[in-house]
Amino acid sequence: MSEKNTAHIMFDKDGKPKSDRPWIFRTYAGHTNVWASNELYRSNLAKGQTGLSIALDLPTQCGYSSDHDIAKPEIGKVGVPINSLDDMAILFDNIPLDQMNTSMTINGTSMWLLSLYIALAEEQGVNIADLKGTTQNDLIKEYLARGTYIFPPEDSIRLIVDMYEYCLHNVPSWNASNICSYHLQEAGATPVQELAFALTTAITILDAVKERNCFNEEEFERCVGRISYFVNAGMRFVEEVCKMRAFCEMWDEITQERYGVKNPKFRRFRYGVQVNSLGLTEEQPENNAWRILIETLGVTLSRNARCRALQLPAWNEALSLPRPWDQQWSLRLQQIMAYETDLLEYPDLFDGSHVIESKVADLKEQAYSEINKIIDMGGGVEAVKTGYMKSALVASQGERMGKLVNGEQVVVGKNRWTDGIESPLVNDSDGGIFMVDADAAQKTIDALNKTRAARDETRAQAALKRLGEEAKQSKNLMEVSIECAKARVTTGEWSDTLREAFGEFRPPTGVEGQALSIESETLDAVRKKVDAFIEQHGYRPRMVVGKPGLDGHSNGAEMIAVAARHAGFDVIYFGIRLSAVDIVQSALEENVDVIGISLLSGSHNEITDQLFDELEKNGAKDSIPVILGGIIPTPDFDSLHAKGVKRIFTPKDFDLMSVMNDIMDVINTQKNG
Amino acid sequence: MPLSKHHSLIKELESIQAAMEAPLDAETRTLLEKAYALEKWPIAQLISIFERNNTDSLIKRHAISQYLAANADTYTRQATVIGLTGTPGAGKSSLTGELCLSLLKHQPDMSIAVLAIDPSSQESGGALLGDRTRMQLPVNDKRVFFRSQASHLDLGGMGKSTFHVMRLLRRLFDLVIIETVGIGQSEIEVQRLSDHTVLVMQPLAGDQVQFMKAGIMEVPNTFVINKCDEDELARKSKHLLNASLKLAKIHVRNEESQEQSIFMTSATKRRGIDELMTHLMAVREQQQVDQVAAQEEYFLNKWIQQAYGEFGLSLAEYFNKSSEDSGTFEQKELRYKSQIANFLTKLS
Ligand code: B12
Ligand SMILES: Nc1nc2c(ncn2[C@@H]2O[C@H](COP(=O)(O)OP(=O)(O)OP(=O)(O)O)[C@@H](O)[C@H]2O)c(=O)[nH]1
Ligand SMILES: [Mg+2]
Prior knowledge:
heterodimer; A: alpha/beta; TIM Barrel; Rossmann fold; 5-stranded parallel beta sheet; 15 strands; B: alpha/beta; 7-stranded parallel beta sheet; 11 helices; binds cobalamin; binds guanosine-5'-triphosphate
């Protein structure tokens, strides 16, 4: 080693060459029930994992106890169900809370889950100041992309600020919320939109904290320092490198200029990552392994903008939930990257690169201009309510789909080089698919009933009453929520009390006024069929696109709704989280020619039953054809068809106009006998 | 159109007229009975008949209208039709939803139909009908029925068939609320088919008054300033509206006092909704004059003009003088068609 060539070396304080410690390897986990999940966490911890990343099921995320009608098809499907403090105690059985770093993907009910966690610690005699972890708790992105909101935006922001206030004073190492741009990219966001909308969210929260005026200057700086991010990284990995650098610079600038934070430590952009899953394909799923690797580069290459924690999807992302082996394979990727390569030995690789600098500056400029536009329009909450940000995301998603259809964006195995030898990976005995044990839900409901029967009812009711009252005043709701937790109040009861106080909220869908740029022969063919239909029947074909249950995956439904309008249908779409009854009623009132259901949460079997029951009740079962789309595993096709589903679409049906063509055929078959 | 076509048209019209002699078929009669009992799907299917643009539907529309007229003692409902219009995003749908909830609470026996119209795409002709998103109406409640409709590239904030659907809904419900497409600077036609028009505005926006001043739009019966979430805002907005009405010398129709026809509401904070509801109920009580004939004439003329232009209109005026003016809308429509076809064949 020559004396002068040292710029590529990092030295420790003794002047010895050093290398960085790797980021935290995370595995997002939880399913079935508290017993199964506890076992899973303990085995992961035994393997040397240091933090827990907890997936909760949709009823828990949306504020329903497991015995609520809307909860039943979803119990334990995509995460663990938590109904009360008793469940929480089982989930963390034999897991030392004060030594854990626990991250919970929870939003609408994040205050409740944190209260349960704190109550559990207190009951176990653990000092709550020692608790470490994160509640995701970014409601703005829930309205925009993820769908597990409950209350109106203002009330949601209040709960978030309550948590920041409480945590800073009582649980100082807890990240009360985690600003997410991950989900925005999954909903279609461009890098500029990701930067702009996420930073706008952070500004919205910090402005609200400032307005509450609950911190002195030093405390406020610490509060800013507690803001962390959850970011996405896609296939255009050089651009992603630049996006991450832009994030770091912009956060430093915003915290300094807008909030006057002096300590650079509190201005640092701390972030975790899950890499892009939207682009992972159902077709030739083995190719996804390479994609995941490339996406990892975007958030690990820059030392100055490297992620703190990383979790990776699996090669079979578009098929089903990952099985333990699939998760292990992705974990190995991280370990190989961190330990087999020399990545962690160097200072920042891109400092001084004109290309990177210019690209970063370009992204920053565009993102700032978007942020300023939103602030001028009244800020983040306003831009949720008017649907400005949501429409922008739907437009981007529509553009992406258009490029996939016309081949402008190449995706190998999907729209290029589509012929290939079939992957042996999907030929396992389980077809490469994870299945949840359906009977396990009963155990959860039994435990819920037991808790209700055993609790001190007077204490529980008193706690709920206090919660309702304090919600209407401007008190911090953390303490009363912790009391609710200890009084064995249930998830449904806590949420219902606040629903009563705040009301519920349904954000704009963003689909209105959207146009697609798809021009193709298939489109011409579909429009001909639509014209022929109008000629024959005297009206445009009518379709309702429905999202029943708690599934918040709206992309597919939005794209189908926009595409149907593009094809010339009259389409009724009114958002996510509706009941089968809502959807059937709308289909009847609107006298539609076809009902299109979109489901990605794995509850399609139960929900199709509900739908057909409801249609049957109204004497419309054989008169209105039902089609289904989303993540529907092939083994379920036969039974769904037998129930009466006319056509099933999955992610590989990305050519929206040939989907429309098929739908016209379904309609015509129904009409003409 | 070549002459031979007119000859065959006359033949076709004759056969339609013959078909119209037949009484209402049993199946549709059952549908009507169920619809009058407020069953949702039957109502929806009847609406479709009134929406569709083909001969079968025309014949059925006639038969239904005639049947309803002949059985007026069974089918006694005669709804008040309220037209709700205003700028895009002013909160028409949210307000309609809240109004319905308030009505259901205070007038538990009243049946309400909401017809919400959304714009169609210029390019594809299709439409996204999303007004349901904003209305959280109870499910499986027979008292309130919601239907979306596309404007189908018609100007005036309504669709081609809105008038026809209104004719049906009037006879099935106690109250019909029609929400138009958000209006820009275009004429609002909803006044032509409603007994009472409500203009919904955003706070501190004087632009609607400007339209009226320019005479583009007739004066609505009731003004609503929605999104008055705070008292202060409500006060300011009301002041501004009053001032600009005065400036524009606009007086609200059928109202002794301007004050009584201006409402400040917040659909999200549920303010001022009950007051507006009470006002509309009072309107319903007072409503005496039967506007149906005038409405029908307007839409008949509109249809003639669309089908035959100005020339058609002048012909119609000429025919009108010489022929009696009774029957259903469909009969009149056919009468004009055949008169014009006959006239054209004679011309040659
Ligand atoms: C994007 C995405 C998200 C986004 C959703 C953003 C949004 N607003 O939609 C975000 C990040 C928010 C998200 C969150 C979650 N997700 Co997710 N997500 C995905 C992902 C990667 C892509 C789905 C997508 O949007 N594709 C693009 C659209 C356009 O395609 P599509 O929906 O498939 O629709 C096409 C066809 O299927 C069909 N179609 C679909 N619907 C309909 C309807 C009709 C009528 C017709 C004709 C056709 C049709 O046509 C469409 C056009 O081609 C999938 C995996 C994958 N690659 O598919 C996982 C996936 C669906 N998610 C999953 C999970 C578990 C979750 C979470 C529950 C995780 C958790 N525990 O918190 C959360 C919760 C979300 C919630 N509230 O329900 C699982 C579901 C597992 C299962 N079914 O068993 C999947 C399969 C990932 C996995 N392998 O684990 N997710
Ligand atoms: N702050 C506030 N917002 C409201 C109120 N009423 C409606 N909104 C919001 O205004 C937006 C538009 O509401 P809609 O009810 O869809 O308005 P609209 O007039 O029917 O809109 P179009 O049919 O699209 O023309 C939504 O985001 C509503 O939540 C209100 O009283 N106060
Ligand atoms: Mg509307």
